[in-house]
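User: Reviewer 2 asked us to show a designed sequence for the structure in our supplementary figure. I'm pasting the structure tokens here. Could you produce the per-position amino acids so we can include them in the response letter?
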């Protein structure tokens, strides 16, 4: 299952539609807090998160989950692709860092890589 977390509803809907069209099970969330309160937090094999969101950024969410011992792969999307943020995200283990608007085939490649990484780390 893939969790898409983005405060921009249009990107949530578009990403959800794209992933479902490729056969993935997807849940969407408008914020990191909404995701953290959901039962899907324990069932997620890949997180696609916006970098800049109110209250908790995607980067902060990744850091929190890592501190909790969760190694779920992250793909970051952002309308503000800053190099320092990209470097931090990737050095903290993110699979991809995509600038909005992103190419749908690039996102699918990232998801395939993320799910392959997750399977390798869990034996699933």
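Assistant: Here is a per-position design you can include in the supplement:
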């Amino acid at each position: 299952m893939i969790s898409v977390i983005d405060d921009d509803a249009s990107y949530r809907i578009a990403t959800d539609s794209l992933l479902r069209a490729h056969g993935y099970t997807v849940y969407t969330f408008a914020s990191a807090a909404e995701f953290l309160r959901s039962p899907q937090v324990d069932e997620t094999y890949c997180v696609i998160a916006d970098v800049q969101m109110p209250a908790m950024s995607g980067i902060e969410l990744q850091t929190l989950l890592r501190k909790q011992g969760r190694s779920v792969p992250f793909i970051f999307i952002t309308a503000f692709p800053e190099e320092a943020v990209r470097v931090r995200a990737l050095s903290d283990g993110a699979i991809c860092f995509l600038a909005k608007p992103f190419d749908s085939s690039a996102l699918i490649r990232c998801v395939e890589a993320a799910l392959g990484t997750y399977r390798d780390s869990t034996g699933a």
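For the response letter, you might also mention the following. Residues 103 and 109 are 10 Å apart (CA to CA). The helical segments are 9-21, 32-37, 58-67, 83-91, 104-122.
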